[in-house]
Amino acid sequence: MKDVKTIGVLTSGGDAPGMNAAIRAVVRAGLEKGFKVLGIMRGYNGLINEDMVEMDYRSVSNIINRGGTFLYSARSLEFKEDAGVEKAKETCLRVGLDGIVVIGGDGSFRGAADLSRKGIPCIGIPGTIDNDIACSEYTIGFNTALETAMDNIDKLRDTTQSHDRCSVVEVMGRHAGHIALNVGIACGATYIVVNEIPYDLNDVLAHIQKSRALGKKHFIIVVSEGVTDVYKMAKDIESATGIESRATVLGHIQRGGSPTVKDRVVASQMGWKAVELLAEGKSNRVVAVKDNDIVDYDIAEALSMKKTIDMNLYNMAKSMSL
Ligand code: ADP
Description:
By secondary structure, this protein is of the alpha/beta class. The protein has helices at residues 19-32, 44-48, 82-95, 106-117, 142-162, 178-186, 201-213, 230-241, 261-279, 299-304, 311-319; strands spanning 6-11, 36-40, 52-55, 99-104, 122-126, 166-171, 191-193, 219-224, 245-249, 285-290, 293-298. α4 (106-117) links the parallel β4 and β5. It starts with 5 loop residues before the first strand and ends with a helix. It binds adenosine-5'-diphosphate (ADP).
């Protein structure tokens, strides 16, 4: 086994609050182990273009509390092709990189698996607001995104209530309904539409009418992105029920903001663990949370795992939302 002497860290794909805390942890853990640590800029593009800077303890000062990623992120089309991965590998060999920590989502992990196959040890850290990495109960940024969405929907509720309206709110989640389900419960939504359950407008309308018959005068409908057009849905609700309806897409605001305690702590733990794995000579692993513990999985195994929403939670929310 080759001794690890120089490691790199990069953030890739969609950004998430807490990525900076993870970078900080990787840098400090690496330095504690006596490694040279390089910050790789703009995801895999930084590897392809040899765009990287050496990090010291102070390079990561003052970032634990900041959203975004100070290493910048990118979606690198070039890296999706074998020629791009080959270029990245050549950079690693030239610079003497003995291991890389990749903070991102499942797309980024596919890239990390490709690079690992070419002999460059890579460890993935789940950084995505969507909590959609199946091997991990938690992904960095999820809690902050929930807080942001809740805060905004609470504000919408004020005005929705003043006018006896219905607010249809689209939240992020890509193909997963974890944000919608949790925020929907936290905001007392009348109905939660998630990707995992077939969308049925008639069921939404029936639920609105049922709660209206019980005296409800304003309604919040939380919808996970990609399920349906929320502007059309608001129009359909208005024409079917006569309740004035408005649609709001929360959008990228959910990706920003100062990370919550949970995101900072989990990011720190995961960053530390990733460096330990590299120091042990491991490669092609993803760091994950399981039963409140930090564990690791083979990347291919992790990518083949499936995660769905908690149906008990969904059913509970539906029953108490009238
Ligand atoms: P996320 O990591 O948030 O899922 P993307 O899916 O956009 O975001 O992936 C981020 C980057 O990871 C891509 O721009 C690309 O460089 C790399 N990547 C994604 N999918 C693959 C793949 N199948 N093979 C190799 N690299 C990939």
